[in-house]
# Entry
Amino acid sequence: MKTLSPVDFNLSLLEEGFTAQDTVDQTINESSMGDDRDAFYVCDLGDLVKKHLRWAKALPRVTPFYAVKCNNSVSVVRTLASLGCGFDCASKAEIQLIESLGVAPSRIIYANPCKQASQIKYASAHGVQKMTFDSEVELMKVARCHENAKLVLRIATDDSNSVCPLSVKFGATLKGCRSLLRRAKELGLDVIGVSFHVGSMCRDPSTYTQAISDARCVFDMAEEFGYKMNLLDIGGGFPGSEDVKLKFEEITAIINPALDKYFPTDGGIRIIAEPGRYYVASAYTLAVNIIAKKVIMNEQSASNEEEDDETNEKTMMYYVNDGVYGSFNCILYDHAECLPILHTASSTVLLYNRFIYFFKFQTLVLIYRLLVSFEQKPKPDEAMYTCSIWGPTCDGLDRIAEHCRLPDLQMGDWLLFENMGAYTVAASSNFNGFATPDIHYVMSRPAWKCMQQINTQGTPAPVEEAGMACVAATCGRESSVDLPTKLCQNHVA
# Structure
């Protein structure tokens, strides 16, 4: 097995006591010394490690097959491959990406029920056998193009309580499953399991219970045709941050009993899932710079001689150097609500931050923390204004936030957006000639050590509370799980 190297992941290891936020501050400091001040990401790959351990604890029976479409950054995919994840691919290009990292074909599921024939042939030639279907036409294509396919029947679910429903496009009804299984048998195809997807950002966990129950019905139905199916794919829809109404553990608390009821552990059924945003959403922070500003006077307030509240007299329009055709495409495609955080660390603190990067003395780190804490406290008398935030293109659709409250900002100020890892960089374009932001990948040394040991020894199972004692891990502000000492106790500070 190849030894892992930070160079392969294009990442910088954080020194003890430092976080991804320090890298944001440092990059802003360096950018502010020039004129470009381009937008950029900081991705904490250590957050993926913590999410992986959290998954193993919350869903011990379920193997994650990461949905590549969510974020196909090589550093992200390589990290998840090193952690032992499988991969949900929807195209030839995604299969090629995973293959290029040395991942075995058995760790790939071609989870697109409607595939191009030439791409089915590519999967066949490269040993990718697991693939989904939901129609007779797809069965006939597979019969012609892939003689060794291991087919998974995608069933429809009630995804009316999901932000992004999928059953309107994919999935066979329970009534239609019988005829599909019969046709598969006639064509001599091997159907090994059932898959479903409750929709992205599901808000009703009971949907999983019904879908798992329906899957059980299809398993029983398949036995009538001589199939002994052994794979259940429970799809995705898992939240990737904490700013959601339905938390990850609330969903898994519903899934686990349903799995135990309908697919007990002694049944020999392998269970997988297709998490996407769960792994990457909270790992990314985006920093954008204000490149233009427009002040709109409120004529009604201005004409009132008794009006003395300046904040009601004007609104602000801020223009930043990334927008909905770039990283904020998630607003259009993923129904995201992106709220800005003002970056308020002073130049004095940023310069101090840069200075202490050359030292490892804990006293200096402590002083830095105190200075940042002092600088970032909101000023009680600072006026706040209603404002809107716009992207840099010439399209009027390019609006990031319609209404928010911010102080009077100037060109050159920075805004931060957290939880920007899901369905952002993967669908970003260069429309109007604006480049996609650079990505700075970081990871704490304890997380790096933990990932190395998972890569060689496997994920600890089960991950019990007793083994999750806190260590000095700086990755993943969103994740509630700390790195286990039994995996990371030998890390280098």
Remarks:
- Confidence is low (pLDDT under 50) at residues 346-354, 373-377, 463-481, 488-493.
- The radius of gyration is 25 Å.
- Residues 208 and 255 are 6 Å apart (CA to CA).
- The longest strand covers residues 284-297.
